[in-house]
Amino acid sequence: MVVEDEAVGEAGVLSRIEALCAEKGLRMTEPRRVIARVLSDSEDHPDAEELYDRVKAIDSSISLATIYRTMKLFEEMSIVSKRDFGDGRARYERKSGPEDHHHHMIDVESGEVIEFYNQELEDLKKRIAHDLGFELVDHHLELFGVRRKKKH
Amino acid sequence: MVVEDEAVGEAGVLSRIEALCAEKGLRMTEPRRVIARVLSDSEDHPDAEELYDRVKAIDSSISLATIYRTMKLFEEMSIVSKRDFGDGRARYERKSGPEDHHHHMIDVESGEVIEFYNQELEDLKKRIAHDLGFELVDHHLELFGVRRKKKH
DNA sequence: ATAACTGCAAAACATTTGCTCACAC
DNA sequence: GTGTGAGCAAATGTTTTGCAGTTAT
Question: Is A122 labeled as ligand-binding?
């Protein structure tokens, strides 16, 4: 059932991408298919170079420029989110829908990234934006911390 | 009295920088003095190039490399905060103390930046980090939004 | 057919660094 | 005097782009 779930998930992502591309008059090409597959198989937050390596393992003819171009495209189509963890490069993560919205807690010592979701936080952010006279369209939130030492 | 406050404020910032430099065995040079002055006169969130322009207006011999080196130094000394508003470059803002901690609401249509502070948010972030087993050392939060249209 | 897409290499940016000289202490 | 800091220019790392050829529709 787990396998089935994953299979459905991938098919879902691919067909959603295909639908969105068609809708916008864009082509479903081999590079885009491969990149979409790599994204749906990735549970982490790869940067462009890491995506490039994973994509090359499947089709070595795909270029880094295409990774960047496709990430920009997928971002506009709300298929991926671009993240910034404070090192100089952009990270990308698949965005299946509003239901898997989350934030990141980054261990500044190990670089480890923990994802979390907090409804209270969501409500508060929306309220703050509203109070300032804004409709919230996006937000960045990253917490940086060190693992708390147990008191002996 | 407002004028007096500002005068005290600026002097405070400058001497604080000088004190911190001395404390760390660093030298108070002309470039550092000029950059400190520009920072304390800046109410906005300039990037390196903008700082460079403002600094050059006072002393044209100061180089961009020195802006970067000094920003890194001042960041380590907790004199400035480095911010990322999603365009590719770092922004800097003076940090007078923990009391003027705040976040940013960015108008995605005009690029306007509104600063805000919310105690509830501070508490919540600390609690989230704590629940995840972390001691919060830093955080990034930016809200992106569009001005809400009044319902006629 | 033909417009969108790609790879490649070069360009564009922001930022960092090596080197030599200058200056604060 | 001595080591820290500066300017300059070259290097770096990431992301973008021009161009000429390729491919999906």
Answer: yes
